[in-house]
Amino acid sequence: xxxxxxxxxxxxxxxxxxxxxxxxxxxxxxxxxxxxxxxxxxxxxxxxxxxxxxxxxxxxxxxxxxxxxxxxxxxxxxxxxxxxxxxxxxxxxxxxxxxxxxxxxxxxxxxxxxxxxxxxxxxxxxxxxxxxxxxxxxxxxxxxxxxxxxxxxxxxxxxxxxxxxxxxxxxxxxxxxxxxxxxxxxxxxxxxxxxxxxxxxxxxxxxxxxx
Length: 211
Description:
Structural class: mainly beta
Number of helices: 3
Low-confidence stretches: 1-30, 204-211
Helix content: 10-25%
Radius of gyration: 19 Å
Strand content: over 45%
C-alpha cells in the first residue's frame, strides 16, 4: 500500500509541472538539531529520545513466562523534530524493528508505523494517546496475519521515572486481552528532556532525578 501511494504521488507531481523538478541530492542532510518541535504534543516525545537497554519477557496464554531476551532501542528525532524514529533490536535470533511516531493535529493523537524482520505481511500501524496524570502512552496496534486476517494488539507504556519505562502488550481476542509481551527499558544515555528543561516528573517527587 505504501509503495502504491508513493507511485501515485510521484505521478501527480510529474503531471503538475511542465518540467519535472530537479532530483534531490543523494547526499544525506543533517537533521535540524537546534530547532524546536512544531507543537507541545510533539515536544513531549523528547522524553523518548536516546539509547535504552531492554529486557523482553514473552508469555503464553496462561500467563506464564515462556521466553526472555535482552536488547536495545535507539530513538532519535527526524524530519526537523516533527517525528521520532525508533530502532529496536532484541534476542539472539536478531529480531529488529524500525518505526516512526508523530503527533497528528488532524486526529489529535499520536500515529505511527513499524516494520520488522520477522514478518513479510506489511507494516504494523499504530495510534496512541498520552495520559499525563498516569504518565502512560496507550497504543492500539493493527497488523495483518499471514492468512490475511486483521490482528489487533493493545500496548500500555508506563513511565516509572525519567530513566525507566515499561511496555506491556496484549493480544485482543474479542472482549479479552491476552498478555503477550512485557518490556522493561532503562536509559543508557543522559535524558535530553532534562537538558532541554523538560521534566516529565516533578523532581521533588522522584528519587531518580538529580542522580
